[in-house]
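Example (one chain per record):
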Amino acid sequence: MITPANDSIATAATSLDTAFHTPSNDEAPDVTAVTTTIDPITAAPPSPNPMRTEPQVTAISRTHLANPASYEQIQNIVADDFYIMDKQVFGSLNSKVQLVMSVSQHVINAGGKRMRPLITLLCSRLCADEQSTDAMHLAAITEMLHTATLVHDDVIDASGLRRGKPTANATWDNATAVLVGDYLIARAFNLLVGFNSLPLLKLFSDGTCDIAEGEVLQLQHQHNPEATEADYMRIIDGKTSRLFMMATSGVALLQDKPEFMQALSDFGQHFGNAFQIIDDVLDYSGNSDVMGKNLGDDLAEGKPTLPTIVALRLLKEQDKTQYDKLRIAVQTGKTENAEYLIGLVKASGALEYCRKRALDETQLAQQALLQLPDNHYRLGLWQLTELASSRLV
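Predicted structure:
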Protein backbone atom coordinates (compact mmCIF):
# COMPACT_ATOMS: atom_id res chain seq x y z
CA MET A 1 0.00 0.00 0.00
CA ILE A 2 1.25 3.48 -0.85
CA THR A 3 0.77 6.02 1.90
CA PRO A 4 2.02 9.61 2.16
CA ALA A 5 5.42 9.84 3.78
CA ASN A 6 4.84 13.37 4.96
CA ASP A 7 3.11 13.43 8.34
CA SER A 8 1.02 16.45 7.37
CA ILE A 9 -0.22 14.62 4.28
CA ALA A 10 -0.97 11.52 6.30
CA THR A 11 -2.94 13.54 8.83
CA ALA A 12 -4.96 15.18 6.06
CA ALA A 13 -5.79 11.94 4.29
CA THR A 14 -9.22 10.40 4.83
CA SER A 15 -11.33 7.85 2.97
CA LEU A 16 -12.73 8.57 -0.47
CA ASP A 17 -15.72 6.37 0.23
CA THR A 18 -17.84 9.25 1.54
CA ALA A 19 -16.36 12.03 -0.59
CA PHE A 20 -19.10 11.88 -3.20
CA HIS A 21 -22.82 11.31 -3.14
CA THR A 22 -23.93 8.36 -5.24
CA PRO A 23 -27.44 8.81 -6.63
CA SER A 24 -30.17 6.45 -5.53
CA ASN A 25 -32.09 4.41 -8.06
CA ASP A 26 -34.73 7.13 -8.13
CA GLU A 27 -32.17 9.76 -9.06
CA ALA A 28 -30.09 7.99 -11.68
CA PRO A 29 -29.51 4.56 -13.17
CA ASP A 30 -27.12 2.15 -11.55
CA VAL A 31 -23.66 2.92 -12.94
CA THR A 32 -21.66 0.28 -11.13
CA ALA A 33 -20.88 -1.27 -14.48
CA VAL A 34 -18.94 1.81 -15.54
CA THR A 35 -17.36 2.97 -12.28
CA THR A 36 -14.83 1.47 -9.92
CA THR A 37 -14.46 1.74 -6.18
CA ILE A 38 -10.94 1.30 -4.82
CA ASP A 39 -10.63 0.24 -1.23
CA PRO A 40 -8.42 2.96 0.31
CA ILE A 41 -7.41 0.67 3.14
CA THR A 42 -6.40 -2.49 1.32
CA ALA A 43 -5.60 -0.83 -2.02
CA ALA A 44 -6.89 -3.98 -3.73
CA PRO A 45 -6.83 -3.91 -7.52
CA PRO A 46 -10.22 -2.96 -9.00
CA SER A 47 -12.24 -5.28 -11.19
CA PRO A 48 -11.58 -4.95 -14.92
CA ASN A 49 -13.81 -2.39 -16.64
CA PRO A 50 -14.32 -3.02 -20.36
CA MET A 51 -15.51 0.55 -20.94
CA ARG A 52 -12.35 2.19 -19.64
CA THR A 53 -9.57 3.03 -22.06
CA GLU A 54 -7.04 4.04 -19.43
CA PRO A 55 -5.35 1.79 -16.85
CA GLN A 56 -6.97 1.59 -13.46
CA VAL A 57 -5.28 2.68 -10.25
CA THR A 58 -4.10 -0.40 -8.41
CA ALA A 59 -2.67 1.25 -5.30
CA ILE A 60 -3.58 4.69 -4.11
CA SER A 61 -3.07 7.14 -1.32
CA ARG A 62 -6.15 8.53 0.40
CA THR A 63 -7.46 11.99 -0.40
CA HIS A 64 -9.36 14.36 1.86
CA LEU A 65 -11.75 16.74 0.17
CA ALA A 66 -13.86 18.02 3.04
CA ASN A 67 -11.66 20.96 4.02
CA PRO A 68 -8.84 21.48 1.51
CA ALA A 69 -6.27 24.24 1.82
CA SER A 70 -7.25 27.41 -0.03
CA TYR A 71 -5.46 28.49 -3.17
CA GLU A 72 -4.09 31.51 -1.31
CA GLN A 73 -2.63 29.29 1.41
CA ILE A 74 -0.89 27.14 -1.19
CA GLN A 75 0.35 30.20 -3.07
CA ASN A 76 1.79 31.60 0.15
CA ILE A 77 4.24 28.67 0.30
CA VAL A 78 6.18 30.41 -2.49
CA ALA A 79 4.79 33.92 -1.97
CA ASP A 80 7.99 35.85 -2.70
CA ASP A 81 8.78 33.82 -5.82
CA PHE A 82 5.20 34.18 -7.03
CA TYR A 83 5.20 37.96 -6.58
CA ILE A 84 8.39 38.36 -8.63
CA MET A 85 7.14 35.95 -11.30
CA ASP A 86 3.85 37.83 -11.62
CA LYS A 87 5.72 41.06 -12.30
CA GLN A 88 7.86 39.28 -14.89
CA VAL A 89 4.80 38.24 -16.89
CA PHE A 90 4.12 41.92 -17.53
CA GLY A 91 7.77 42.97 -17.71
CA SER A 92 8.52 40.43 -20.42
CA LEU A 93 6.27 42.21 -22.91
CA ASN A 94 8.45 44.54 -24.98
CA SER A 95 6.74 44.98 -28.33
CA LYS A 96 7.43 48.16 -30.25
CA VAL A 97 3.81 48.10 -31.46
CA GLN A 98 1.48 49.84 -29.04
CA LEU A 99 -1.56 47.79 -30.04
CA VAL A 100 0.31 44.58 -29.22
CA MET A 101 1.17 45.98 -25.79
CA SER A 102 -2.39 47.17 -25.13
CA VAL A 103 -4.04 43.88 -26.08
CA SER A 104 -1.39 41.78 -24.29
CA GLN A 105 -1.80 43.76 -21.09
CA HIS A 106 -5.58 43.51 -21.41
CA VAL A 107 -5.59 39.72 -21.59
CA ILE A 108 -2.97 39.28 -18.86
CA ASN A 109 -4.83 41.73 -16.61
CA ALA A 110 -7.97 39.64 -17.07
CA GLY A 111 -6.72 37.72 -14.06
CA GLY A 112 -6.68 34.03 -13.50
CA LYS A 113 -5.05 32.16 -10.68
CA ARG A 114 -1.69 31.59 -12.40
CA MET A 115 -1.92 27.91 -11.47
CA ARG A 116 0.60 26.66 -14.01
CA PRO A 117 3.37 29.05 -12.94
CA LEU A 118 2.55 28.30 -9.30
CA ILE A 119 3.14 24.61 -10.03
CA THR A 120 6.46 25.45 -11.69
CA LEU A 121 7.58 27.42 -8.64
CA LEU A 122 6.53 24.70 -6.20
CA CYS A 123 8.32 22.06 -8.29
CA SER A 124 11.47 24.18 -8.41
CA ARG A 125 11.54 24.63 -4.64
CA LEU A 126 10.75 20.95 -4.19
CA CYS A 127 13.88 20.06 -6.17
CA ALA A 128 16.12 22.71 -4.56
CA ASP A 129 14.90 24.94 -1.73
CA GLU A 130 16.37 28.20 -2.95
CA GLN A 131 15.11 31.10 -5.00
CA SER A 132 15.71 30.44 -8.69
CA THR A 133 15.59 33.31 -11.17
CA ASP A 134 15.46 30.77 -13.98
CA ALA A 135 12.45 29.05 -12.43
CA MET A 136 10.61 32.35 -12.10
CA HIS A 137 11.38 33.14 -15.74
CA LEU A 138 10.13 29.71 -16.80
CA ALA A 139 6.97 30.14 -14.76
CA ALA A 140 6.30 33.50 -16.45
CA ILE A 141 6.86 31.94 -19.88
CA THR A 142 4.42 29.15 -19.04
CA GLU A 143 1.78 31.71 -18.10
CA MET A 144 2.43 33.63 -21.30
CA LEU A 145 1.82 30.49 -23.37
CA HIS A 146 -1.31 29.69 -21.39
CA THR A 147 -2.64 33.22 -21.96
CA ALA A 148 -2.03 32.85 -25.70
CA THR A 149 -4.08 29.63 -25.80
CA LEU A 150 -6.94 31.37 -23.99
CA VAL A 151 -6.91 34.25 -26.49
CA HIS A 152 -7.11 31.79 -29.38
CA ASP A 153 -9.80 29.74 -27.60
CA ASP A 154 -11.98 32.84 -27.20
CA VAL A 155 -11.77 33.51 -30.94
CA ILE A 156 -12.62 29.88 -31.81
CA ASP A 157 -15.54 29.84 -29.36
CA ALA A 158 -16.66 33.40 -30.23
CA SER A 159 -16.58 34.18 -26.51
CA GLY A 160 -17.42 37.70 -25.39
CA LEU A 161 -16.46 37.29 -21.75
CA ARG A 162 -13.76 35.48 -19.82
CA ARG A 163 -13.74 35.58 -16.02
CA GLY A 164 -16.45 38.22 -16.25
CA LYS A 165 -14.36 40.61 -18.37
CA PRO A 166 -14.57 41.36 -22.12
CA THR A 167 -12.31 39.15 -24.22
CA ALA A 168 -9.71 40.55 -26.61
CA ASN A 169 -11.76 39.52 -29.64
CA ALA A 170 -14.82 41.29 -28.23
CA THR A 171 -12.87 44.42 -27.25
CA TRP A 172 -10.97 44.66 -30.55
CA ASP A 173 -11.67 42.03 -33.22
CA ASN A 174 -10.80 38.45 -34.11
CA ALA A 175 -7.84 39.33 -36.32
CA THR A 176 -6.22 41.45 -33.61
CA ALA A 177 -6.78 38.79 -30.97
CA VAL A 178 -5.32 36.01 -33.11
CA LEU A 179 -2.23 38.04 -33.99
CA VAL A 180 -1.60 39.07 -30.40
CA GLY A 181 -1.98 35.46 -29.33
CA ASP A 182 0.64 34.64 -31.94
CA TYR A 183 2.88 37.37 -30.54
CA LEU A 184 2.62 35.94 -27.01
CA ILE A 185 3.69 32.50 -28.27
CA ALA A 186 6.55 34.00 -30.26
CA ARG A 187 7.66 36.11 -27.31
CA ALA A 188 7.57 33.08 -25.02
CA PHE A 189 9.96 31.23 -27.32
CA ASN A 190 12.11 34.33 -27.67
CA LEU A 191 12.53 34.24 -23.89
CA LEU A 192 13.12 30.48 -23.86
CA VAL A 193 16.16 30.94 -26.08
CA GLY A 194 17.74 32.89 -23.22
CA PHE A 195 18.14 29.69 -21.22
CA ASN A 196 20.63 28.36 -23.79
CA SER A 197 19.10 24.91 -23.28
CA LEU A 198 18.25 22.89 -26.36
CA PRO A 199 16.45 20.19 -24.29
CA LEU A 200 14.23 22.85 -22.70
CA LEU A 201 13.53 24.45 -26.06
CA LYS A 202 12.66 21.03 -27.52
CA LEU A 203 10.35 20.24 -24.57
CA PHE A 204 8.41 23.47 -25.11
CA SER A 205 8.39 23.35 -28.91
CA ASP A 206 7.16 19.74 -28.95
CA GLY A 207 4.62 20.57 -26.24
CA THR A 208 3.30 23.62 -28.09
CA CYS A 209 2.79 21.49 -31.20
CA ASP A 210 0.86 18.99 -29.05
CA ILE A 211 -1.33 21.79 -27.66
CA ALA A 212 -2.19 22.99 -31.18
CA GLU A 213 -2.89 19.44 -32.33
CA GLY A 214 -5.17 18.88 -29.34
CA GLU A 215 -7.19 21.96 -30.25
CA VAL A 216 -7.45 20.87 -33.89
CA LEU A 217 -8.48 17.37 -32.80
CA GLN A 218 -11.24 18.92 -30.70
CA LEU A 219 -12.45 20.86 -33.75
CA GLN A 220 -12.32 17.66 -35.79
CA HIS A 221 -14.68 15.96 -33.33
CA GLN A 222 -16.95 18.96 -32.79
CA HIS A 223 -20.62 17.99 -33.24
CA ASN A 224 -19.55 14.34 -33.56
CA PRO A 225 -21.79 12.06 -31.45
CA GLU A 226 -19.51 9.12 -32.32
CA ALA A 227 -16.50 10.61 -30.50
CA THR A 228 -15.08 8.12 -27.99
CA GLU A 229 -13.50 8.37 -24.58
CA ALA A 230 -10.16 7.56 -26.21
CA ASP A 231 -10.66 10.53 -28.56
CA TYR A 232 -11.42 12.73 -25.57
CA MET A 233 -8.30 11.65 -23.71
CA ARG A 234 -6.15 12.43 -26.75
CA ILE A 235 -7.75 15.86 -26.99
CA ILE A 236 -7.21 16.85 -23.36
CA ASP A 237 -3.72 15.35 -23.30
CA GLY A 238 -2.86 17.95 -25.90
CA LYS A 239 -4.95 20.99 -25.16
CA THR A 240 -4.79 20.89 -21.36
CA SER A 241 -2.41 18.39 -19.81
CA ARG A 242 0.57 19.09 -22.05
CA LEU A 243 1.14 22.58 -20.67
CA PHE A 244 0.99 21.25 -17.11
CA MET A 245 3.63 18.69 -18.11
CA MET A 246 5.79 21.43 -19.59
CA ALA A 247 5.42 23.43 -16.37
CA THR A 248 6.67 20.46 -14.31
CA SER A 249 9.13 18.69 -16.59
CA GLY A 250 10.86 21.94 -17.44
CA VAL A 251 11.89 22.24 -13.82
CA ALA A 252 13.74 18.91 -13.92
CA LEU A 253 15.76 20.25 -16.85
CA LEU A 254 16.40 23.60 -15.18
CA GLN A 255 17.48 22.04 -11.90
CA ASP A 256 19.45 19.24 -13.59
CA LYS A 257 17.36 16.60 -11.83
CA PRO A 258 16.86 13.84 -14.42
CA GLU A 259 15.89 11.45 -11.64
CA PHE A 260 12.74 13.54 -11.04
CA MET A 261 11.77 13.94 -14.71
CA GLN A 262 9.36 11.00 -14.94
CA ALA A 263 7.57 11.72 -11.66
CA LEU A 264 7.20 15.42 -12.45
CA SER A 265 5.96 14.64 -15.96
CA ASP A 266 3.46 12.07 -14.64
CA PHE A 267 2.19 14.53 -12.05
CA GLY A 268 1.64 17.21 -14.69
CA GLN A 269 -0.16 14.86 -17.05
CA HIS A 270 -2.53 13.31 -14.51
CA PHE A 271 -3.21 16.59 -12.70
CA GLY A 272 -4.04 18.16 -16.06
CA ASN A 273 -6.33 15.28 -17.00
CA ALA A 274 -8.18 15.52 -13.69
CA PHE A 275 -8.42 19.31 -13.97
CA GLN A 276 -10.04 19.14 -17.42
CA ILE A 277 -12.44 16.33 -16.56
CA ILE A 278 -13.58 18.28 -13.50
CA ASP A 279 -14.13 21.40 -15.64
CA ASP A 280 -16.23 19.37 -18.05
CA VAL A 281 -18.32 17.86 -15.25
CA LEU A 282 -18.98 21.35 -13.90
CA ASP A 283 -20.36 22.40 -17.28
CA TYR A 284 -23.34 20.23 -16.33
CA SER A 285 -23.43 20.58 -12.56
CA GLY A 286 -21.53 23.72 -11.54
CA ASN A 287 -22.49 27.26 -10.63
CA SER A 288 -22.78 29.37 -13.78
CA ASP A 289 -21.97 32.58 -11.89
CA VAL A 290 -18.76 31.12 -10.49
CA MET A 291 -17.73 29.58 -13.82
CA GLY A 292 -18.53 32.68 -15.84
CA LYS A 293 -20.53 30.73 -18.42
CA ASN A 294 -23.91 29.07 -18.72
CA LEU A 295 -24.40 25.41 -17.88
CA GLY A 296 -24.46 23.33 -21.02
CA ASP A 297 -22.35 25.73 -23.10
CA ASP A 298 -20.02 22.92 -24.13
CA LEU A 299 -22.99 20.89 -25.34
CA ALA A 300 -24.31 23.83 -27.36
CA GLU A 301 -20.90 24.21 -28.98
CA GLY A 302 -20.82 20.51 -29.79
CA LYS A 303 -17.58 19.96 -27.88
CA PRO A 304 -16.68 16.30 -27.33
CA THR A 305 -16.48 16.37 -23.54
CA LEU A 306 -16.40 13.26 -21.38
CA PRO A 307 -19.85 13.75 -19.75
CA THR A 308 -21.49 14.02 -23.17
CA ILE A 309 -19.55 11.07 -24.61
CA VAL A 310 -20.38 8.83 -21.66
CA ALA A 311 -24.03 9.96 -21.55
CA LEU A 312 -24.45 9.06 -25.23
CA ARG A 313 -22.80 5.70 -24.60
CA LEU A 314 -25.08 4.88 -21.67
CA LEU A 315 -28.30 6.25 -23.17
CA LYS A 316 -27.74 4.21 -26.31
CA GLU A 317 -28.08 1.14 -24.10
CA GLN A 318 -30.74 2.51 -21.75
CA ASP A 319 -33.21 4.53 -23.83
CA LYS A 320 -32.94 4.93 -27.62
CA THR A 321 -35.41 7.83 -27.68
CA GLN A 322 -33.43 9.89 -25.18
CA TYR A 323 -30.20 8.89 -26.89
CA ASP A 324 -31.51 10.31 -30.18
CA LYS A 325 -32.49 13.58 -28.52
CA LEU A 326 -29.02 14.06 -27.08
CA ARG A 327 -27.34 12.87 -30.30
CA ILE A 328 -29.27 15.39 -32.40
CA ALA A 329 -28.40 18.19 -29.96
CA VAL A 330 -24.70 17.34 -30.24
CA GLN A 331 -24.88 17.18 -34.03
CA THR A 332 -26.85 20.38 -34.54
CA GLY A 333 -25.93 22.51 -31.52
CA LYS A 334 -29.62 23.22 -31.04
CA THR A 335 -30.07 23.31 -27.28
CA GLU A 336 -33.14 25.48 -26.73
CA ASN A 337 -34.23 22.73 -24.31
CA ALA A 338 -30.86 22.90 -22.54
CA GLU A 339 -32.28 22.21 -19.09
CA TYR A 340 -33.91 19.01 -20.33
CA LEU A 341 -30.71 17.88 -22.07
CA ILE A 342 -28.64 18.58 -18.97
CA GLY A 343 -31.14 16.47 -17.05
CA LEU A 344 -30.64 13.62 -19.52
CA VAL A 345 -26.89 13.68 -18.99
CA LYS A 346 -27.30 13.73 -15.21
CA ALA A 347 -29.90 10.94 -15.16
CA SER A 348 -27.78 8.71 -17.40
CA GLY A 349 -25.17 8.29 -14.68
CA ALA A 350 -22.46 9.94 -16.82
CA LEU A 351 -21.47 12.51 -14.20
CA GLU A 352 -20.84 9.85 -11.58
CA TYR A 353 -18.64 7.98 -14.03
CA CYS A 354 -16.71 11.17 -14.81
CA ARG A 355 -16.25 12.03 -11.14
CA LYS A 356 -14.72 8.60 -10.57
CA ARG A 357 -12.56 9.13 -13.64
CA ALA A 358 -11.33 12.47 -12.30
CA LEU A 359 -10.51 10.87 -8.95
CA ASP A 360 -8.55 8.12 -10.69
CA GLU A 361 -6.43 10.77 -12.40
CA THR A 362 -6.04 12.71 -9.14
CA GLN A 363 -4.80 9.60 -7.38
CA LEU A 364 -2.31 8.91 -10.17
CA ALA A 365 -1.01 12.47 -9.80
CA GLN A 366 -0.61 11.90 -6.06
CA GLN A 367 1.21 8.64 -6.66
CA ALA A 368 3.69 10.53 -8.81
CA LEU A 369 4.24 13.05 -6.00
CA LEU A 370 5.16 10.25 -3.61
CA GLN A 371 8.21 9.55 -5.79
CA LEU A 372 9.54 13.06 -5.09
CA PRO A 373 11.34 14.60 -2.09
CA ASP A 374 9.28 14.83 1.08
CA ASN A 375 8.93 18.52 1.97
CA HIS A 376 6.29 21.20 2.32
CA TYR A 377 6.53 22.10 -1.39
CA ARG A 378 5.41 18.58 -2.21
CA LEU A 379 2.62 19.05 0.30
CA GLY A 380 1.60 22.22 -1.57
CA LEU A 381 1.32 20.27 -4.81
CA TRP A 382 -0.64 17.55 -3.00
CA GLN A 383 -3.00 20.20 -1.65
CA LEU A 384 -3.54 21.53 -5.17
CA THR A 385 -4.81 18.10 -6.21
CA GLU A 386 -7.21 18.11 -3.27
CA LEU A 387 -8.36 21.64 -4.01
CA ALA A 388 -9.08 20.79 -7.64
CA SER A 389 -11.02 17.66 -6.69
CA SER A 390 -12.98 19.49 -4.01
CA ARG A 391 -14.82 21.37 -6.77
CA LEU A 392 -16.72 18.14 -7.43
CA VAL A 393 -18.14 17.90 -3.90
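Caption: The chain has one domain: 68-390.
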